[in-house]
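Good morning C.,

I know you're traveling, so I'll keep this short. The sequence:
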Amino acid sequence: MTDKGAQYEHQPVMLEEVLDMWFSRGDGFYVDGTFGRGGHSRALLEKLDAQGRLAGIDRDPQAVAAGEQLASEDGRFQIVASRFDCLPDVVDQVGRPIDGLLLDLGVSSPQLDDAGRGFSFLRDGPLDMRMDPTQGESVAQWLARADEQDIANVLYRYGDERKSRRIARRICEERKEQPITRTLQLADLIESAIGRGEPGKHPATRSFQALRIHINGELDALTQVLEQSLETLAIGASRHYQLPFSGRPDREAVYSRSLRPGSQGARWFAVGRRNAPAAGADWQGYSCQQGRAESECSLAQCGVAGSGEGGLMSVPWLIRTLVMLVVISALAVSYSVHEARRLTDESQKLKQQQTRLESQWSQLLLEHSTWGSYARVERLAREKLGMKLPKTDERVLIRP
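The tokens, ready to paste straight into the viewer:
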């Protein structure tokens, strides 16, 4: 491990719970798809016997260095420098299917603690956010060239940011004045665009999450690895566990596409934010690493989980969803009845007004019909002008 990587410690999320469900047999072949600093992998190696094998996958150079160190210490372990959607290659190398796959998605503590990586909105550093700084473009480079609509779409799709358009507009205005190259520069810009927002949550949380997911192609990799796992996990004893955060808007779409029926006994680790029950129960849990600001916790710090056989939804989740739908339907019906009554009252008022206008119009027509009559002209001349008709023997002199 490099000196820089060694100074940042990482505590694995829900270690005991993960091991209970990840480990199935001592001589099995396991894959840690997000090796990081190897917390989960080291704990699993302690459970494996001499025939057991473990492959760690990571594209972070510091994580790869930590994996190489572990591989030199334990011959049962090997590190693969790649995205985690390379399962077929790993299985081909080892020559056996996978008995357990772990994906601890997102950004890890060492990546957040190292300001130079650009993941944290609480520490000033270059605006990078690449898992592998040697590959692809940084967030700063992408923000410098992306148009306003693309930026808004990324913030909304990957971060659930409802004020994405306002932030995108502010970014485009700022980059005309100066390049956006620092993390705190972007965080302050976002705060100036949308204000403080939710109590206890930094206004840049959703935007930083969205930019990181986009710049690293995390959802593409997740979709690929879920599809690959259906072909590479061992039949019957295979288990597939994931620890994702709970903020992805199309999370369910990714899982429903990939975790389809016919997984041949694979056990899936689904998603949800819940209170964890007692150890050993069919649990759904949420855990946030102690000592870290809640606003900075993400995929790796906040483990959110639920287990189920051959499906994504647990029964309690389904019941809660149905109750919510019933409540929403009742509110919709109540609102519709209220609107119908309001429209009926307005219709009656309009009919009454129409009747009054028709009456006034009839009176106007009647009055208009008398305007040109001789009797009306004579009456107006007498009443308004003081004129009178001359007698038959009178002469009328009209002077110019």
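Safe travels,
E.
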